[in-house]
Amino acid sequence: MLRLTCPCCGAAADETELAPGGEAHLLRQGPGSSDDAFEAYLFQRKNPYGVHFERWRHAHGCGKWFHAARDTRTLEVFGTYSAQVSAPPQDILDRIAEKHPGFSSEGGQ
User: Fold this and answer.
1) DSSP secondary structure letters along 10-60
2) ∠ CA(103), CA(3), CA(1), 5° rounding?
């Protein structure tokens, strides 16, 4: 079972207490964007077999959104962090790089 620590309230929560929100760090597209950009925003998502950055909501807790970095192969969690940032914190990227040499947050592994 996946277990994440909510960075907002500090509670360790099982996945049954959380609501998934899809891929983290997306560039949002709105009314002024092209049709192609809006289509890409709505439908084209990464679905990696490996390191992935995701959004989660502590639905049965504080109710706040946060981001998590984890490995989809092993369910290993590298860390959780605020949803108010535009990129993963360096300490989490360092933890990922220790386990996955050559990892790049831009292109994956």
Assistant:
1) --EEEGGG-EEEEESS-----TTS-HHHHHHHHH-----SSEEEEEEE-TT
2) 100
d(CA 62, CA 49): 30
| DSSP-derived secondary structure letter, 16 | G
pTM value is 0.87
* Within a domain: 107: no
Residue 79's domain is classified under what CATH number? 3.30.2270.10
Question: Where residue 44 falls among pLDDT bands split at 50, 70, 90?
Answer: confident
Using the structure block, give the residue that is written with the tokens 């959004």: 55
Cα angle at 30 between 26 and 31, to 5 degrees?
Answer: 165
**Among residues 68, 64, 108, 65, which one has the least CA distance to residue 88?**
68
